[in-house]
Amino acid sequence: MRNKILKFPEGFLWGASTSSYQVEGGISNNDWAVSERVPKAGLACDTYNRYPEDFAIAKYLHHNAHRLSLEWARIEPEKGHFDEDALYHYHSMLSFLKDNGFKTFVTLHHFTNPVWVANQGGWANSKTTKDFCEYVSKAVQSLGQLVDFWITVNEPKMYAGMAYAQGIWPPFQKGFLKPKKVYDSLLTAHNQAYDIIHAYDPEAQVGFSQNIAWSEAKHKGLDRLAIQFADWLSYSALDKTRHDFIGLNHYMYYRVHLAFSWRHYLNISRGEKLTERGWAIHPDALYYVLMKLKKYRKPIYITENGIADRTDRYRTSYIHDYLRAVHRAIQDGADVRGYLHWSLLDNFEWEDGYKWKFGLVEVDFKTQKRTIRESAFAYSHICQDNAIEITSN
Ligand code: GCO
Predict the structure, then answer these.
(1) Could you tell me the distance, in angstroms and rounded to a whole number, from the CA of residue 156 to the centre of ligand 1?
(2) Ligand 1 atom nearest to 349, measured from its CA
């Protein structure tokens, strides 16, 4: 047995991903914070105040890129009223990252909306797209010089599904046609934001993050049709948008089997290793998705990939195995230029509150103490070496 080093391309970006409501704390005026039907993030990781500590940890762990999101509700607490203090605060956060040599990925919409947006009907109201664009203009003018990569919207498909089809996220609607309308509005908003950002800086790098799973049919026929439909939802969005890069969030592998009871229409194959969250661990899935994304001839950044693993028993091998799939995809022609692990810190996991532990760094939510997990050190070596080491026979 020998050890083999698999090098990543020169300049590959390594880091972690976060989002404002999940880590910042102290946000009281978005649609999640005012709802009684979902858990509240409360103080979260208090990253809004503790960012120097958190970013210093990321630097210590040899990350050279970081993804965060701006909270629209902080920047524009009332329609047309922009909070200069909030913009100044984000300016300080991003300057801190830039001064420490990080490439910055900044998301403009990561699932949450200001209360005033929710009150006017959220993304089901076409006016919201125009309002979003005004917020984008302001953000770009104030922060543009500190941003290397703009991610306009995070997982538009997921957001439309959870908020307007499954009714699990605000505004808790279970519509049939609305989800598609909301999805399309988010993609329109993306395209308009793309133009706004490019008018400000023609060289800007703008994309959005799409969650794409890899699914296999248990049987031909209906199972395969279901997959084709799901894939069409994911990939057609890339056909009808303008983007300088593709942001890929990848977690899922499904073995699809349509059953008669529609509540259990989807089955994940047994025998798979599942994470605590119940998601299948299947690194080849990432390889196959990357192979499908090749045809767009755009740089690809993995803007999320990670595992809920409270005990940290599986995270190191998870990262290693998924990166091996990424490396193989690069060898086979996929233009992957960066990997941002979800997430830097344990954080607020939406409808499940603080149940899942996705962090490279453990957070004690009572004391706000950070403890770097073993897997974070293993990942740190990869970041530093720009390579993974494998054992081969
Ligand atoms: C998503 C989001 C993140 C989640 C992560 C883990 O994919 O839902 O972008 O906000 O926290 O995926 O569940």
Answers:
(1) 12
(2) 11
The reply to whether ligand 1 has any atom less than 6 angstroms from the CB of 211 is yes
Q: Which atom of ligand 1 is nearest to the CA of 154?
A: 9
Q: From atom 11 of ligand 1, which residue's Cα is the shortest distance away?
A: 349
Residue 155 Cβ contacting ligand 1 at under 6 Å: yes
Looking at ligand 1, which residue's alpha carbon is closest to its atom 1? 155
- Helix extents (H) in the chain: 20-23, 47-60, 72-75, 84-99, 115-119, 127-143, 156-160, 178-200, 222-239, 283-293, 315-331, 374-385
Atom 13 of ligand 1 has which residue's CA nearest to it?
A: 349
Q: Is 154 in the pocket of ligand 1 (CB under 6 A)?
A: yes
User: Which residues partner with 114 through β-bridges?
Assistant: 30
Model confidence over 308-356: pLDDT tens digits?
Answer: 999 999 999 999 999 999 999 999 999 999 999 999 999 999 999 999 9
- The boundaries of the domain holding residue 16 are 2-392
Tokens of 81: 């009223």
Cα 275 vs. chain centroid, distance in angstroms?
A: 18
Query: How many angstroms is it from 4 CA to the middle of ligand 1?
Result: 33
Q: Which residues pair with 390 in a beta bridge?
A: 4
CA atoms within 13 A on the CB side of 320: 15
Domain count, the chain: 1
Q: Please tell me what DSSP assigns to residue 81.
A: B
* 158 C-beta neighbours (distance < 10 Å), count: 16
> Which domain CATH number covers 167?
3.20.20.80
- Where does the pLDDT of residue 265 fall: very low under 50, low under 70, confident under 90, or very high at 90 and above? low
pLDDT at 74 over 90: yes
Tell me the CA–centroid distance for residue 126 and ligand 1, in Å.
25
Angle, CA 226 vertex, CA 225 and CA 232 arms, to 5°: 85
Atom of ligand 1 nearest to the CA of 358: 6
Which of 121, 128, 141 is closest to 186 using CA atoms?
Answer: 128
